[in-house]
Fold:
Amino acid sequence: MSEPREPVPILAPGHTFGSVTDQISAVVLTRRTPRFWWVGFGIGFMLMSMLLVAVTHLFLNGTGIWGVNVPVGWGFAIICFVWWVGIGHAGTLISAILLLLNQEWRTSINRFAEAMTLFAVACAGLYPILHLGRPWLAYWLFPYPNTMALWPQFRSPLIWDVFAISTYASVSALFWFVGLIPDLATLRDRSESRVGRVVYGLLAMGWRGSARHWQRYETAYLLLAALAAPLVVSVHTVVSFDFAVGIVPGWHATIFPPYFVAGAIFSGFAMVVTLAVPLRALYGLEDFVTLRHLENMARVMLATGLVVAYGYMNETFMAWYSASPYEQFMIVNRMGGPYAPAYWTLILCNVLIPQLLWFRRVRTTVPLLFVISLVVNVGMWLERYVIVVTSLHRDFLPSSWGMYSGTIWDWATFIGSIGLFASLLFLFIRFLPMISIFEMRTLVPEAEVREEEAT
Amino acid sequence: MSRPWIYGLLAEFTNPTDLVAAVHAARAAGYRDMDAYTPYPVEEVAEALHAHDRRLPLIVLVGGILGGVGGYLLQYWTSVVDYPLNVGGRPFHSWPAFIPITFETTVLVAAISAVLGMLALNGLPMPYHPLFNAPRFALATRDRFFLCIEATDPLFDDDGTRRFLQRLEPRSVSEVEQ
Structure:
């Protein structure tokens, strides 16, 4: 028997408009940069430098420095691309879909989840370009009138991907920036340095909180949310088409779009938890990101994790039901072939360990939740590794079978992209409010207009 | 009597309820050229001001239609007219394959219209505004609620309007210079 639950508030009691504003903006406006920031940014920056070295080596010598070769022509580049794009789904999901569903608890996590989305999509966007072979011709992917009189092949999912990812990156950036405008005005008005006033002032574009402006602003924000919600779903659907439209065993499946979208949300929420837990502790933001937020995110992880588990089950079932020897061999090879350890680790990480989230005690034990979120991040990377590699390395004719493993340059590029992500995130935390200040003000008890006294 | 260098009179309130009451009172007194300033969106204030701008959804709709039609026509024209490419004898006008990109361009242009439309209707960016001259106005982005009755209002009168605002029991009333 568990005791009846106390509702944990989404904003700790005792806050006023002023205290919310001061506490969140102080993180940005304080002159002293905390030591953990320098440590975190320093590590991120060093890893990012490794990415620069790896990319320079790639530009000088070509994709031969990677492990990709016939028959596995898609390796780390696409694995990491899908992994990063997936992580990038939580931000817009939290800010758009939860906004439309009137989930007030999203307020304190949406800003940094959106920032996380942008930076994850930036990391993801690198990989297809790096994998082009001649990355300086990346603009050929876009339709523009050219002297070669050529146009892109619009029936190819790879071109759909170009449009889906660039639209997603643009719309996420717009959504994020629109959400920032009123907070930039707050920083402009509270900054004590001239540089701060000028820079935040330029970015705030003269926002002054007029009621007429707020009315149009709210309309625009809702419309953007309504546009972004189907966009989130479409992006990973299109990414899954990169696989599902091909006829390779293990890829050619109709379950791919929903299963990819669920996996994206699963990994995205895992990454939000991974980032939220240390940030709220280091910056003392437990009043704003409460246990209730962490518990709700754990619930979303549990639910989407179950959808992903259904996807794995469905793949296995369809391999048997298809009666195709190639599909059947693919699943047997995936479960018992040379890559079996990767497969079973991913099942452990994505299906078995997240079942702990059924228990409330686990969902509210912050360190344990943090560890589970890391496990899910690893599991989702392995999932993409298994999908890409096990399908390609033994497809049809045994004479064309082969093995794949990443080289040191694959790993340097991947770990370096984590450094790029971390560097951008630390810069964001230092220079922009990581929690939406104006939306937090609406959660303060006095924010409600008392109708009987107002008329 | 009204002096030409005055933009308006600014009354400061400490909570949204008082501001809504003040806007109602000012409307009842016949003032029309006024605006309220709040640190977060307060629906009741916009209602009290009769601020209902319904143009933005239309702008977004037009943007979305232009984006969708433009995206589809781009694919049709390049794949059927300008550069027909025979892939396994499939039709040049293979419309199902054109849907994903049509969807993306629809969302992209609609979203850009939403943001640019909102900024344009709000008259932003506007780096200078007379209200920024009022020393206490910086609190409008922190924890204070302001009502500004502008000098362009036919009923505006330095002393009369000031007395009117003072009767609403604001925390302060100040002049805003142009």
